[in-house]
Amino acid sequence: MSDRPVSRARRPLLRPRQAVRIAVGLWLVLGVVLWNVVFDHVIVGAGRDYLYRQAQALQHKGPKVTIAEVMEPAAVHGVLVASFWSLLVTAVGLAAVGYAASRGVTSSPPSS
Predict the structure, then answer these.
(1) How many domains does the chain fold into?
(2) Rounded Cα gap, residues 32 and 79, in angstroms
C-alpha cells in the first residue's frame, strides 16, 4: 500500500449526521407533497361528480344538487385520506432512515 492521500472520489460527500438530516428533511417534504397530491385528487374527483350530477339535474334525470352538498363531504374525506397516506409514507420513510442511521449504513463503497 502506498501512503498517497485518499482521492476526492473515495471520500464521502456528507458526514453521516448531515446525511440523516437531509434524508429526514426529504421525507418530510415528500409527506407534504403527497398530502397535497392526494387531497387534490379527491377534490378533483368530487368536482367532476358535482358537474355530472348537475348535468343530470338539468336534464331532469336526477335531483338538484348544490356544490356544498358534494364538496363539503369530499373535503372532509380528502383531509382524512390525504392525512392517512401522508403519515403512513412519512412514518415508514423516517423509520427507514432511523434504522439505517442506527446500523451505520452509508452510501460509500467498501474499501478494497
Answers:
(1) 1
(2) 12
- Report how far residue 72's alpha carbon sits from residue 83's, in angstroms, rounded to the nearest whole number: 17
How far is 31 from 12, CA to CA, in rounded Å?
27
With respect to residue 112, please indicate whether it lies within any of the assigned structural domains: no
- d(C-alpha 25, C-alpha 100), whole Å: 15
Q: Which domain holds residue 30?
A: 16-103
Asked whether residue 109 is assigned to any structural domain, the reply reads: no
DSSP label at 4?
Answer: P
- Name the average pLDDT for the chain: 88
- Give the CA count within 13 Å in the CB-facing half-sphere of 1: 5
Establish if 99 belongs to a structural domain.
yes
Locate cell 403512513: which residue? 88
Task: Check pLDDT > 90 for residue 12.
Answer: no
Q: In this predicted structure, which of 3-12, 15-24, 28-37, 39-48 has the lowest mean pLDDT? A: 3-12
For residue 15, what pLDDT is reported? 81
